[in-house]
Automatic annotation (TrEMBL):
Pfam families: PfkB. InterPro entries: PfkB_dom, Ribokinase-like. The lineage of its organism: Eukaryota, Viridiplantae, Streptophyta, Embryophyta, Tracheophyta. This is Carbohydrate kinase PfkB domain-containing protein. Gene3D superfamilies: 3.40.1190.20. SUPFAM superfamilies: Ribokinase-like. Coiled coil: none annotated. Residues 82-399 form the Carbohydrate kinase PfkB domain.
Length: 483
């Protein structure tokens, strides 16, 4: 029998692969695996799930008595996970309130303490943070893990149940020697209060807002289990909110290890990018490292401007590319206008879809999931943006994130509707300064042929014809998995 180590998935169920060279199936993508026979592909364990992986399959890592040793002679581990999210696992408590919490910190803390006196009804709970991206990715047929920490209480168990229902595993990030009182607030699952006023404006608060150190600052090193998850993943995704939970040093170690083992890194600084850029020396160092070392950067136009000082989103993206040492794509999210994908040799643009917007929470996270889908499947860049815009728009049509992010049928219906929010004047003015520099592509509703001054127009009809069969196949299999 092979010597084995165990990758522990803190979930009621996790897919079991007895052979490390055989990719882990996603229950949503495997026709032979429905919910009723999912059990036969699973190992049930009260405190977590172990996925054995033979020691021989780990490149540069061997495990002996819990230690990690360099071993270059070992064969390369198969990357059987598509995406692993790093940190930012929380439970959203979504409440309608007459008015949003006050801005002064002391008053906000008192406001949150009042909310926290007793657990709200479970109908107001939702998986939040990186769960949004993970769920959206799983619904697109990707094999997904979340790497982070949740406590052993009602909120943590709720979060694990939600992830399990979506076919997503959870890898505990802490090491056994990370000592903390399990009854203390610092060990509990992070809660984020999502407050919605009568005008549908949102306010957010969590205990991380009122402490100087990250919520899980007691985590000192990247666990062996977390390293194995990173190594087996094609992509890891981290966002700026991860700094609310995990120390900059720990997040940098995840980045360094991903680079070492050939895992692509996606980073979205989000609104936290601005505060990190003016934060502690360690925060600034970590932000700079993620901006330089990530394969794919995702930012809104406002976030790109705040980090570069450049108002033009294309110039801002190109500056981030120049500063990056490994950066392949910079994606600028333009809200209702659409999105732009910039590479060293090209600029790709896609208008958004016209939808009835109900709630924008989770749109950016689900957008990232679709970018990962295109990256993994090596889709043409405009195709990738089109799917991402559709997934983000479909999420905006619902209320809240978590389990309310876009379902695949909503995405395919939106693509079939072919209702682009075209703004020819906006794109013409934006691209006229750049169309001669790089190969430039623009998604349009109109079927056009040929090039015009290096501007290649790609019709939505063509994109839909080519990507819809892939998505509809995944949708059909998802329906089987839900039986």
């Amino acid at each position: 029998m092979h010597n084995q180590v165990a990758l522990s998935l803190k979930s009621n169920y996790a897919l079991f692969s007895p052979c490390p060279t055989k990719p882990l199936p996603n229950p949503r993508l495997s026709p032979s695996i429905s919910r009723r026979n999912f059990y036969y592909y699973s190992i049930l364990k009260c405190k977590g799930i172990e996925i054995p992986a033979p020691k021989q399959s780990l490149n540069s890592l061997s495990f002996s008595n819990g230690s990690v040793e360099d071993d270059r002679s070992k064969s390369v581990v198969v990357k059987d996970i598509d995406v692993a999210t790093i940190g930012n696992l929380c439970v959203d408590i979504v409440l309608n309130v007459p008015k949003l919490p006050p801005k002064p910190l002391i008053e906000r803390e008192a406001y949150m303490d009042e909310l926290s006196k007793s657990p709200p009804d479970k109908k107001y709970w939702e998986a939040g943070g990186n769960c949004n991206m993970a769920i959206a990715a799983a619904r697109l047929g990707l094999r997904v893990l979340t790497v982070g920490h949740v406590g052993d209480e009602i909120y943590g168990r709720f979060l694990l149940d939600v992830l399990c229902d979506e076919g997503i595993g959870m890898v505990e990030m802490k090491e056994p020697n990370d000592v903390i009182d399990s009854l203390s607030a610092g060990y509990e699952t992070l809660l984020c209060w999502v407050l919605v006023d009568p005008l549908q404006k949102h306010g957010f608060c969590s205990r991380a807002d009122f402490i100087e150190e990250p919520a899980f600052n007691w985590m000192s090193t990247l666990s062996i289990k977390a390293k194995m998850a990173i190594k087996r993943s094609k992509i890891i995704f981290c966002n700026g909110y991860g700094f609310d939970e995990l120390s900059p040093r720990l997040l940098m170690s995840a980045l360094d290890y991903a680079v070492e083992v050939g895992t692509s890194v996606f980073f979205d600084p989000g609104p936290r990018g601005k505060s990190l850029n003016s934060g502690t020396p360690e925060e600034r160092k970590a932000l700079d490292k993620y901006l330089r070392m990530s394969d794919v950067l995702l930012l809104t136009s406002e976030e790109a401007e705040s980090l570069t000082g450049t108002e033009d989103p294309i110039l801002a993206g190109q500056e981030l590319l120049r500063k990056g040492t490994r950066t392949k794509w910079v994606i600028i999210k333009m809200g209702p206008k659409g999105s732009i994908l910039i590479t060293p040799s090209s600029i790709s643009c896609a208008p958004s879809f016209k939808v009835n917007v109900i709630d924008t929470v989770g749109c950016g996270d689900s957008f990232v999931a679709a970018i990962a889908f295109g990256f993994i499947h090596k889709l043409p860049l405009v195709y990738t943006l089109t799917i991402a815009n559709a997934v983000g728009a479909a999420t905006a049509m619902g209320c809240g994130a978590g389990r309310n992010v876009a379902k695949l049928k909503q995405v395919t219906d939106l693509l079939k509707g072919s209702n682009l929010n075209e703004d020819d004047k906006f794109w013409e003015e934006l691209l006229k300064e750049h169309s001669g520099d790089k190969e430039t592509a623009l998604l349009t509703n109109v079927v056009l042929n040929g090039h015009d001054n290096q501007l290649q127009c790609t019709s939505l009809q063509k994109v839909v014809c080519e990507v819809l069969p892939k998505l509809e196949c995944a949708e059909a299999i998802n329906q089987v998995g839900a039986c």
